[in-house]
Specification:
The protein is of the alpha/beta class. The protein has 5 helices and 5 strands. 32% of the residues lie in helices and 14% in strands.
């Protein structure tokens, strides 16, 4: 099994799942993710989990974790959003150079997310992806999944 730290930050404890201040800004926890990582390492040492990893960490955050004094276990995996509109090539290469596998979520795109181009087509309807799919006699979804597999990135649709 793989136990992941979903974000490199937490939210302020309280009644609200995503607590916000009066201006609508998210209220973060004051817990450092390195403290959370230590607790995850303890779980691994106790045999409660087989491996530990991270999700949505960038290169700087990973480097900070890897340079943590007393680090006992490095992350086995970084789970990130990745697809042709958001390939994250630098992050994928960085993780691989550190021996951290990468898993891509939303490999078929995330049409309702804020960074999508409203004027552009959803990834599954992208003309270039459709062209490649027709040429290879595959579906656009198969092309998008293969994009990740060819980069040695695991995929969770």
């Amino acid at each position: 099994d793989l136990y992941l730290m979903h974000w490199p930050m937490g939210f302020k404890a309280g009644e609200e799942l995503f607590p916000k201040d009066k201006n609508g800004s998210i209220l973060p926890s004051n817990t450092d993710f390195l403290d959370t990582w230590e607790a995850m390492e303890d779980m691994m040492d106790a045999g409660l989990v087989k491996s530990i990893g991270i999700s949505n960490f960038n290169c700087e955050q990973i480097e900070r974790l890897l340079n943590k004094p007393g680090l006992k276990h490095k992350p086995a995996n970084n789970q990130i959003e990745s697809h042709p509109y958001l390939p994250q090539e630098e992050l994928v290469s960085f993780c691989k150079s550190k021996g951290i596998s990468v898993t891509a979520y939303c490999p078929l795109g995330a049409p309702n997310w804020i960074w999508n181009k409203p004027e552009g087509p959803p990834l599954l309807d992208d003309p270039k992806v459709k062209e490649i799919a027709a040429k290879q006699n595959k579906t656009t979804a198969q092309i998008l999944l293969r994009f990740q597999i060819q980069r040695n990135v695991a995929v969770i649709p």
